[in-house]
Design a protein that fits this description.
- The protein has one domain.
- Helix content is about 40%, strand content about 5%.
- The strands form 2 sheets. The chain has a two-stranded parallel ribbon with strand order 1-2. A two-stranded parallel ribbon has the order 3-4.
- The N and C termini lie far apart (about 30 Å).
- The N terminus is likely disordered.
Length: about 140
């Protein structure tokens, strides 16, 4: 089991490609989350550095995701001790600048955010027991 401060191990990442196809079970769960909550998708991953939003959206659509990402988070300047702190700051900045009233960050990297769902196992992702329900409850709860 990973700790809140650990990055995925090389074993966990072995064989994963930058454009690794989405798992159909994950797509079905993501689509349920999107349909139930009417949420939008904002990209925080490193894809934002090597792919444009249109290409990312095309990838999502090609894998059956019912909504395309609407935006990516901006990089935040600063001296961060850990990568997770930088990503946390990027998410907080996006939420603040876009006057978001309900949101949920989902990642396999632990982040100290009020509205966060930790997908501890990068292979199970949102198929982990109870995680999709937690995401839906977070998105539907008053912020």
């Amino acid at each position: 089991m990973r700790t809140k401060t650990s990055l995925p191990t090389s074993e966990e990442l072995r064989g994963r490609l930058p454009w690794e196809p989405f798992d159909p079970e994950c797509v079905a769960i993501l689509n349920r989350i999107l349909a139930t909550t009417l949420a939008d998708i904002v990209i925080t991953s490193d894809w934002k550095h090597s792919k444009n939003l249109t290409d990312i959206g095309d990838f999502y659509a090609a894998h059956g995701v019912i909504k395309r990402p609407i935006d990516v988070t901006s990089d935040v300047n600063g001296n961060f001790e850990r990568y997770a702190l930088r990503r946390t700051a990027e998410i907080q900045q996006w939420v603040t600048h876009n006057d978001v009233t309900a949101w949920c960050a989902v990642d396999d990297l632990w982040m100290d955010l009020d509205c966060f769902a930790w997908a501890q196992d990068p292979h199970a992702a949102i198929t982990a027991p109870g995680l999709a329900d937690h995401i839906i409850e977070t998105l539907l709860a008053p912020y």
